[in-house]
Amino acid sequence: MRRPTIRPAEPTDLAAVAAIYAHSVRATAATFDIEEPALAYWQAKLDSTAVGDHFLVVCDEDEMLGFAYSGAFRPRPAYGRTRETSVYIAPEVTGKGFGRRLYSELLDLLRQDEVHLVVAVVAQPNPASNALHRRLGFTEVGTLDEVGFKFGAYVSTTWWQLRLT
Asked: How many domains does the chain have?
């Protein structure tokens, strides 16, 4: 495998992005979606031009390895300098550092945009994601116990934040 490339997502990436996400929908509690979103969902993320909205992919040649994106935390204007982030890596390449590289690149873009605060939500238990957020400088700010219900069980989420400015 060559050194993977991180770049902005393109329309031709959306099917591969959707496939990686579909695995999380079907097999994990990493997302609380219970149905795979339509390609239009991913297209809307790609089309966003709001400051602080980014959509990145990590690829090796023609193989999609993962993606990350940032978007509005809440729709009200006072939240404009806060962004929520998400990172998904193909299951066959997790644990190889692609998530850290991808997330670091995303955070650099958010710093350039002068985003003040980044938040992330991690379904529990997820020691790998918790460790990734700690390594990147995030602070754990709290857990919502049993806030979701997926695969016949209640799932808690831990909130993380990183002040960029």
From this structure: 1
Alpha helices in the chain (DSSP H): 14-27, 39-47, 98-112, 127-135
Asked if residue 87 is part of any domain, the answer here is: yes
- 109: exposed, middle or buried (Cβ count in 10 Å: 0-12, 13-18, 19+): middle
Query: With DSSP H G I counted as helix, E B as strand and the rest as coil, what are the percentages for the chain, rounded to 5?
Result: 35, 35, 30
Query: Is 82 inside any structural domain?
Result: yes
Dump pLDDT digits (tens) for 9-50: 999 999 999 999 999 999 999 999 999 999 999 999 999 999
pTM equals 0.94
- Chain segment 92-118, per-residue pLDDT in tens: 998 889 999 999 999 999 999 999 999
Main-chain phi, psi angles of 60, to 5 degrees: -120, 110
